[in-house]
Design brief:
Elements: E1 5-12, E2 15-23, H1 31-49, E3 56-61, E4 79-84, E5 87-92, H2 106-115, E6 120-124, H3 130-137, E7 142-147, H4 150-162, E8 170-174, H5 177-186, E9 191-196, E10 201-202, E11 211-212, H6 213-225, E12 228-238, E13 253-257, H7 259-262, E14 275-281
Parallel strand pairs: 2-3, 6-7, 6-9, 7-8, 9-12
Antiparallel strand pairs: 1-2, 4-5, 10-11, 12-14, 13-14
C-alpha cells in the first residue's frame, strides 16, 4: 500500500468515526518524511470520508508484549455506542490503545449469539464483554465472564447494562482464569458454550507466572473443556500466527478449525489476523 495505515470505521450513534492505525516505520526512515506521509494520510481520510479532525483518531502501532496493548493512556475516556447483531456496545477512542471491540471477531461473536440459546455461557479473558452481550442477546440462560482487569470488567458491566442484562444472571468475576477454572472444577460448574480468547503473551503483575498461549494452551483448554456438558461447544481463538494446536492432548473433544468462517471480508488481506477452532464434547 502507498501508506502503511489501516483505517477502521465505526458508525456510532453520534456519527461516523475513523480510527487510523499507522504501522511503525522501519528503523532508518527519516522521521520528518514519515511525519509528512502521516499528515497526508490523515488529510486523505478526512477528505474522503468528510470527517473533521475530532472525528478521526490516530494510533501508532508498534510490537507489543504482555499487557501493554491494553494499557490506559492519561486522558479522559469518552464512550460512544455502536450496534452489532442487535447488540449495543460501547467503544472508546482516546484513553486506550484499543477501542474495546475487536473488529476481526465480528463473525465469531455472531456464532456465539447463534449457539447460545438455552445454554450457560462462559467467557474466559472476557475483555469488555462483547461476546457475553451477544450470548445474552442469543438467549443464554446465564453467563459468567472472567478477566483480571477491573477496568475492563467495569466496561463489560456497562455493556451488559446497556442491553438490559440482569447482573444476577450475567456474572462478572475478576480472577486469574487458571485459578478460576480450578475452583469451578471443584464446584462442578458446567456450561454449554465456552469462549476462550487469550492474549498471545501476558506478564501481568497480577499473575503468579507469565502466560504464553503456545506453551500453556493445553492446560488452559483442558480446564475449560472439563466444564463442558456432553454435547457442549468450546470456541478457542488466538492471534499468534505460528500457533499449533495440540489436538491429541484432548480426549473426548472433536476439533474443527473454523478460521475461514470467522475472519470477515474486510480482513481478507490479513486472513491470519486470528485463528479459531470449535470443539464439541462427546456425548457419553
Amino acid at each position: 500500500p502507498e501508506y502503511a495505515v489501516a483505517v477502521d470505521l465505526y458508525r456510532c450513534r453520534d456519527g461516523l468515526r475513523a480510527r487510523v492505525q499507522e504501522y511503525a516505520p522501519p528503523v532508518g526512515v527519516d522521521p520528518e518524511r514519515a511525519a509528512v506521509r502521516r499528515r497526508s494520510a490523515l488529510a486523505g481520510v478526512a477528505e474522503l470520508l468528510e470527517l473533521t479532525p475530532n472525528e478521526i483518531t490516530y494510533r501508532l502501532r508498534a510490537p507489543q508484549r504482555g499487557d501493554t496493548q491494553y494499557e490506559r493512556e492519561a486522558v479522559q475516556a469518552h464512550f460512544h455506542e455502536v450496534a452489532e447483531g442487535g447488540c449495543r456496545l460501547l467503544v472508546e477512542f482516546d484513553a486506550h490503545l484499543d477501542t474495546g471491540l475487536f473488529l476481526d471477531h465480528r463473525p465469531t461473536r455472531l456464532v456465539i449469539q447463534q449457539q447460545a440459546a438455552g445454554k450457560r455461557f462462559l467467557n474466559l479473558f472476557c475483555y469488555t464483554g462483547a461476546a457475553t452481550v451477544h450470548a445474552a442477546q442469543g438467549g443464554a440462560l446465564a453467563t459468567t465472564s472472567i478477566d483480571l482487569s477491573g477496568t475492563y470488567l467495569e466496561w463489560a458491566r456497562s455493556n451488559l447494562d446497556l442491553n438490559g442484562c440482569d447482573p444476577e444472571t450475567h456474572e462478572l468475576v475478576r480472577a486469574d482464569c487458571f485459578e478460576w477454572l480450578a475452583q469451578a472444577a471443584r464446584e462442578r460448574l458446567r456450561f454449554g458454550l465456552v469462549f476462550v480468547d487469550p492474549p498471545t503473551f501476558s506478564n501481568s503483575k497480577r499473575l503468579e507466572t507469565d502466560f504464553d498461549v503456545q506453551r500453556d494452551h493445553v492446560r488452559l483448554l483442558q480446564g475449560a473443556a472439563e466444564l463442558l456438558v456432553p454435547g457442549g461447544m468450546l470456541l478457542f481463538s488466538t492471534n499468534f500466527r505460528r500457533f499449533r494446536l495440540d489436538e491429541a492432548a484432548f480426549a473426548g473433544l472433536d476439533w474443527k478449525e473454523i478460521s475461514a468462517a470467522t475472519v470477515p471480508p474486510d480482513f481478507a488481506r490479513n486472513k491470519r489476523i486470528h485463528r479459531c477452532w470449535q470443539a464439541v464434547r462427546s456425548v457419553e
